[in-house]
Fold:
Amino acid sequence: MSHPQTLFDKIWQRHTILEREDGAVLLHVARHLVHDGSAAGFRTLRDRGLKLRRPDRTFGTPDHYVPTHTRDMASIAEAGRRDMVTALDRNAADTGMTVFGLNDPRQGIIHVIGPEQGITQPGLLMVCGDSHTATHGALGALAFGIGASEMAHVLATQTLWQGKPRSMRVTVTGTLGPAVTAKDVILAIIARVGAGGGSGHVIEYAGPAIAGLSMEGRLTLCNMSIEAGARAGMVAPDETTYAFLKGRPYTPSGEAWDQALAFWRSLPSDPGAVFDTEVTLDGSAIVPMLTWGTSPEDAAPITGKVPDPADQPDPERRAAMQNALDYMGLTAGTKFTDIPVDRVFIGSCTNSRIEDLRAAAAVVKGRKASVWAMVVPGSGLIKAQAEAEGLDRIFLDAGIEWRHAGCSMCVGMNGDLVAAGERCASTSNRNFAGRQGRGARTHLVSPAMAAAAAIAGHFTDVRQLLDA
Amino acid sequence: MPDLEKFTRIDAIALPMATPNVDTDQIIPARYLWHAKSDGYGKWLFNDLRFNEDGTLKPGFILNQPDYAPAEVLVGDRNFGCGSSREHAVWALHDYGFRVVIASSFGDIFYNNSFKQGLLPVVLPEAEVQALREAIERGNSAHVSVDLQSQTITGPGGFSTRFEIDPFRKKKLLEGLDDIAITLTFTDAIDKFEAAFEQNMPWLKNP
Ligand code: SF4
Structure:
């Protein structure tokens, strides 16, 4: 019997072209994703007179800079921002790569599109010039974000130099309670390990609570691996994965499907495989979560209160916490459910898939929003499906805006911003100071919790709304 | 092939920043990212921490203290550069004048990106980072020396330590070697690998 390997080891090994004596490894990139923020990588390629090595393995869609209230490009005021979107089309035309453009019904957030099209598959090494590339690990791929220079390197050579990260297994035991979602699980994990806890690691999520998640839930979970500091997050492929993949445009069919399936089944970590770090959480103890500070590690159960910096023994930590509370405009000891919100954003590569929209709609149905709220589907296809299911009507009837697909208020690069001092319940992944706009106060929550806040006008334990 | 900027050694004023989880949105807010690199991102470094909305300086922010304005070494805390993959964060630090960031841990992508721009990220144990920050705060306009060849750092109050760095990255920084140029010398190996990879995974062909 050979040495037991992890899922991560197996994919790493399969993509290793060569290893230098000093330990640097040259890896093959099976699929490369790009978006409208990837212009710098293409510029380097052009400046150096290099060609895109594998147009057949490069896929892109505009997401960060696209308007969501219209598909009219003229609505983007600054020429520089407009150029970001049109540059992607130009780069695609120049290089022959595949692009799902602004007027293609398949356009959307790149991390939503990859799995949706079946471009993301188990056992593949995938990269994208975006930190949330970890999302794709939900299908048992090894996927991680890279910077502009690395992107140019991948465009030119379809390879990447990397040192091998360490491995971490996060096991979530038990069964999740009602209205507890993957978002709550990942926030609980980050609260436990810290925003840098997974630094230098690839996380494999395992255990019954993870196996019980839908593919949408696993995508949410892996998406926020970077918020735990990890390079990548992954879930071993299983029947949920194969059922999700079957029949998608870029997944194999017929004999090729059987061949692929046999390979996919060989991927899960071997019994006895050793991880550098192990973390275990009790899934049945997790309740709906929210963040109160300016780091995703500042996450707590909705049943609690704003923590008190005075309880922090370390003076630097205490100061950092007080800074976060000042920025967020919060007072220690306030019950989370007493905090009013000004805005609600349901969307982003974390929580904009059909299951997320259904969960939000289930809370909203037959009720009215008491604050300004918007829903931004992750792709044109999700938008169409939600409309076929009548979800758009539920939101519109509640007075909630229904938009076109894009990153939108997750990062506000397209102008969908939260005003200074405003408090936003957001299903996105980052509550950093200024993330949703200068002075904006972001609280990360699940789609159901965001919907509950939209209805109540303050944070609410969604379980109470669902019982009612 | 264009050479990258080399890094060998510097001796410069160091800026202590005791904040954990300094994220890339703080280093360079998203609203500037569509500008060309040649526009010089240094003017927007830590924009929302450095400036009020009307463009006036926020006196409380440490980089606005005249003693620290010429700093070239930044001594952070844990998880520096966490968040997005934007290389602009590195461009902004470098363009402002920083050449070294010392922290007890880094966001992985930020760490990788730093080397592409001749910005040296140094990981030291948490206690040493804190000791160095405190030594700088005690000294006035204290200098810190960082030598890549010997992998050593010296600072005020007799601070002295050695740091670890991956040998391949060290060589590239010392000699200003460029990744793409290196990789292109392996084209034969890449061609061979791709052929075998595709034979083993025939289902990867696009429809
Ligand atoms: S939705 Fe947000 S986190 Fe996701 S890719 Fe877009 S900007 Fe990045």
About this structure: The longest strand of chain B covers residues 9-16. Residues 177-207 of chain B form one domain.
